[in-house]
Amino acid sequence: MFLAVAPFAPTYGSRSSNQQGKVAELRLELNSGGKKDKNYSAKKIALKKIVANMTMSNNDMVALFPDVIGCMNLPSLEIKKMCFLFLVNYSRMKPEVALKALPILVDDMADNNPLVRALALRTISYVHVREFVEATFQPLKRLMQDNDPYVRKTAAFCVAKLYEHDKKMVENSDLIDRLNRMLKDENPTVVSSVLASLVDIWGRSESISLTIDYVSASKLVSILADCSEWGQTYILEALMAYVPQDAAEALLLAERIAPRLSHQNSAVVLTSCRVILYLMNYISGEKHITSLCKKLSPPLVTLLSKPPEVQYLALRNAILILQKRPEVLRNDIRVFFCNYNDPIYVKVTKLELMFMLTTKDNIGVVLAELREYATEIDVHFVRKAVRAIGKLAIKIESSAKQCIDTLLELVDAKIPYIVQEATVVIRNIFRKYPNQYESIISHVLRNIDDLDEPEAKAAVIWIIGQYADRIDNSDGLLQDYLATFHDETVEVQLALLTATVKLFIQRPTKGQQLVPQVLKWCTEETDDPDLRDRGYMYWRLLSTDPATAKQVVMGQKPPITAESEKLDPRTLEELCLNVGTLATVYLKPIHQVFRAARPRRLLPSPALQRSPVEDGTGNMLDYNPPTANMPAASTSNSGLATITTTGDPITPVNAPPPPNLPIPAPNSVAASGPSNMNEAADAADAYFSGIGSQQMASLDLGDVGGGGMPQSQYVVTQNQQQVYQPHLAGGAATGELLLL
Amino acid sequence: MLSGILIFNQKGENLIFRAFRSDCRPRLADIFRIQVISNPQVRSPILTLGSTTFSHVKHENIYLVAVTKSNANAALVFEFLYRLIMLGKSYFGKLDEEAVKNNFVLIYELLDEILDFGYPQNTDPDTLKMYITTEGVKSAIANNPTDSSRITQQATGALSWRRSDIKYRKNEAFVDVIEDVNLLMSATGTVLRADVNGQIVMRAYLSGTPECKFGLNDRLLLDPGESSGPSSGRGGGNGLGTSKATRAAAGSVTLEDCQFHQCVKLGRFDADRIISFVPPDGEFELMRYRATENVNLPFKVHPIVREIGTTKVEYSVAIKANYSSKLFATNVVIRIPTPLNTAKTTERTSQGRAKYEPEQNNIVWKIARFSGQSEFVLNAEATLTSMTHQKAWSRPPLSLSFSLLMFTSSGLLVRYLKVFEKNNYSSVKWVRYMTRAGSYEIRF
């Protein structure tokens, strides 16, 4: 049957007479038939047309509300369902009309057909109107003890729905206690629904805590096999509320959950991964951990034969799990090679994973593969592949030469974006391995004219400056760039400034004409504060003591590393407690993406194997939850899990206070224009001369890069990798957030 | 969990809008249309804007969208969207714009049933079809309380996928072993990757509540002495080369990993690797598996591609069937990429037909029937138009598709299928093997 559908019109407001006519026509049709129409077929057809028009014709159908309610009591389940659907859709727009349906729904909740009881309960609890919510409470209590499991499961979800409508009203009633008691239900589907409902309530409440003891957890695991795939997922999610008090118990549960990893539904698989990874925090013994890790690998790889969206999710989670448990995914790296037809988001994620899994033993295969990717059509992907080659050179020292050779071969193809990308990574290679691969400088400079992107230009300028003494025409090359100094981006200007100074220090005769010119531009003819500051700094350095200037500018710098993909331990821990969720796609601290999400942390227990934050970089004190929230082995009289409305809300995790950095006292330098330039310079001089030698020492130049971290190393960050044209990459494709 | 389910057509018209929570506002439909459908730069299936996340799947000519707030279980979201597609196919044959437009009421009814407060409920088509019926079928059964109880027991029971009152005069079961063989071969002819994604589909027409046991030539089952248990064997795929060879000779297969239908008792499989289950009625996917060892590649392709100057590319592609001469593959299609600026092509083949498809930038060579051990050759030439801005040709890989009956690339065999039922009826079982090309790519 074909249903007429009003044409789609995106403009709201004025309704054409045509649509007015349509409403009148449908009303007539709905009220036609009369007594002859025994099976109400005319009404059914009219209702079907109304439902069909509901979504597609901008709420014109709301005018038919009273007529639809008139049909609600007809003895046909088919009609009832359509009327209820209409009610759910429009009750918020016309609450006063909707009220007329309330008695019918209340009656139906006492119908002797379980499907009708459940339908009525489900419908009434969707209606966000106060009278409806209030009218649900009493019947709901009865239906939670219905003798039909289908009704009971519907009632279980209904509590969470009411909680969404009116928190206070639910908290002041005994509904949550009743829900708790339903955990003893003999029907596994009901139990899993109760758990889903409890977890949902928990997620939206500050004042409710959810705890499960071992006996209950064990019982839940035993009913897993009897639940639907969705029910299994709900139970597994709820198991995250169990805090093992004993390593052996944790191990036993993990082993009993492991068979779920062979389920066809990826939600069951990934949620099982989450629970097992969580339990591993409480399991002692290298052997057990290794054996569990081995069980996690094959299912993750198998998810790669699922639809691309699920593959993507599996890959993002693999990146996460690999950082937490490097033992996982020790299998052949080749399963992560890209297929030509993989969607771009899958390819890019595979690339990241390949980078992480590359070792000196398999780098040959990986490089050959990356070279292939560098010839593909998608520019974004090609760039990432080239980046990856450069990052591998930094990651695996023994294979750096091999990587560089691959890069140079690619550069020879003279495809502009490859050349630019390669230039950037070669600069990083020089920073990582000073004085080793400078023989390739001439090779890189051959393509200097092809560079037009700021990052690539800045990279090549850095190379020229750093190796000014080895490049014969370094001054000439710089001069070419300086000719367009004012048209360049700040990034390039900064690079030019530094490179010119380096040139002057290394080859004073060649640089002496350039330096004053550049310093003048940077200090007098720019608006950019960084450029000015750096210009002044060099100026003073050079004019005060050239020997010191040389030490400072050309001094040894700590090498960079490629291990930046690593999430900080705290984020890593938090994300591992959320395997399979949306946050794992973004791989960012959860509160950054989902502000409303209730934080999850590893709760302490005698069995907890390591301190929650491994490196000690975080502040343990404000990280651990208040011990008052520690679940004392659940003494609940009411069944498997308890959800309590205690007056002891879990304090939200606060970000640690910013570290106290020695910040020099602000002074009143206000160098706002050329007129008071000299004045400002004098003031600055006065300030610096006033700083005692001790204060200077406390600035501790040796530690600049590390910012107080135990190891002072620069990192090639993942973000840097994405600096290029994030808008072209489509933001979300690279896991970045797009905010409205 | 899910706040709403939306369905759009390609033009961005919102066909279905069902909110399950009050935070799913109607204007979200406009936001999705603007941010995803009409934004060609979006390449991710997940988009988070503020506190709202849109997860979408494109199927046929429609977008299926799940709206979530907060940090939802993404795996569940996508599994559900794919389940919705599967249900649509089961009810309407296929789920596309036309099917949606012809079945608004049924789709809304289904959504109301399979999601409660955004939590997926029973999504099993057999059970759903007992009380959510298509055009013309009366739902009289649901108006009767005793029958309704049967439905509700079914929808919430441990065997939610099977009715108890199924009767067949002739009890039969068909097993299809379908393997997708994936190959990635480098230009120098080395195998970069070869693996098999297998799928076992069963069509069960069995009365009552049959308990089935299913046996494969799974190495871990056949040589239990070799490793201490399934867990230690599954992870360590890279055993000793010699023992691998003897295993292959003994006719057993190493399954890297298996995933099973809801009906399979996973505890049983984990403990002693026995596949035991009560099947749903009719067709279902019993299991999926993956094999990476001793993959038999049905076709060997040897391409020679020479770019002559900037105006011509010469191809010589030889393909040889690597399977027994008693077998034959059907629908063999070889796609040979051509440069984007190809003006015309000429082809000669020793078998089948070759045709240039300019919109795909491919020469498509089709061979309807390809007997085992035979070898065919294609010679072709592509003439290129000259371009002012000459960019190197990216040389995408050559790809194959085919299907080959009675052959499994992994060597997997079904050893038995036993049916136990309290009425002790006899049943007839059939098994069929097929190998298809998954992603079968050869670089040149």
Automatic annotation (TrEMBL), chain A:
Record's GO cellular component, any one? cell cortex of cell tip
Please give one Gene Ontology molecular function term for this protein. clathrin binding
Q: Where is this region: Disordered?
A: 605-636
Subcellular locations according to the entry = Endomembrane system
Q: Tell me, what is an example of a GO biological process annotation in this record?
A: vesicle-mediated transport
Q: Which Pfam families match?
A: Adaptin_N
Give the Clathrin/coatomer adaptor adaptin-like N-terminal domain ranges.
34-545
What are the protein's UniProt keywords? Membrane, Protein transport, Transport
General function of this protein: Adaptins are components of the adaptor complexes which link clathrin to receptors in coated vesicles. Clathrin-associated protein complexes are believed to interact with the cytoplasmic tails of membrane proteins, leading to their selection and concentration.
* Family per similarity comment: Belongs to the adaptor complexes large subunit family.
Q: Which PANTHER family match?
A: ADAPTOR COMPLEX SUBUNIT BETA FAMILY MEMBER (PTHR11134)
> This chain belongs to which protein, by name?
AP complex subunit beta
This chain's source organism reads Penicillium antarcticum
Automatic annotation (TrEMBL), chain B:
Which domain of life does this protein belong to? Eukaryota
Q: Which terms in the GO cellular component ontology are assigned?
A: clathrin adaptor complex; clathrin-coated pit
Coiled-coil stretches noted in the UniProt entry, renumbered to this chain = none
The alphabetized list of GO BP terms reads: endocytosis; intracellular protein transport
The record, for InterPro entries, names: Adaptor_comp_med_subunit (IPR050431), AP2_Mu_C_sf (IPR036168), AP2_Mu_N (IPR043532), AP_mu_sigma_su (IPR022775), Clathrin_mu (IPR001392), Longin-like_dom_sf (IPR011012), MHD (IPR028565), Mu2_C (IPR043512)
Keyword flag Membrane: yes
Where does the protein end up?
A: Membrane, Coated pit
| MHD domain residues | 170-443
* Keywords for the protein's UniProt record, in alphabetical order: Coated pit, Endocytosis, Membrane, Protein transport, Transport
Family of the protein in this entry: Belongs to the adaptor complexes medium subunit family.
Indicate what this protein is called per its UniProt record: MHD domain-containing protein
Q: Which organism is it from?
A: Penicillium antarcticum
Taxonomic lineage of this organism?
A: Eukaryota, Fungi, Dikarya, Ascomycota, Pezizomycotina
